[in-house]
Input
Amino acid sequence: MVRERLAKIGILLAALVGAIPADSWACAVCGVPKTQATRGILPAVILMLVLLGIVFGAFIRFFIRANRSRNQSGGFNRVRTSS
Output
């Protein structure tokens, strides 16, 4: 009974994936590499990834500094949040 339901769900998912047009799988960055849209979007995507890396790095650095400060001071009461 469970196998029948899983088989039906698998068939349904395969039908849904098959119903999506092939053109909708490609984005502007990786779809057609020599178009003007791709040339304009690619630097923006790279800039967003760099900014995301900077924000995540600062977020992780805050918790590392807070942990070090907590270990040295004995608690979070005197945690420095700026350099």
Remarks:
- DSSP finds two helices and no strands in the chain.
- The mean pLDDT is 78.
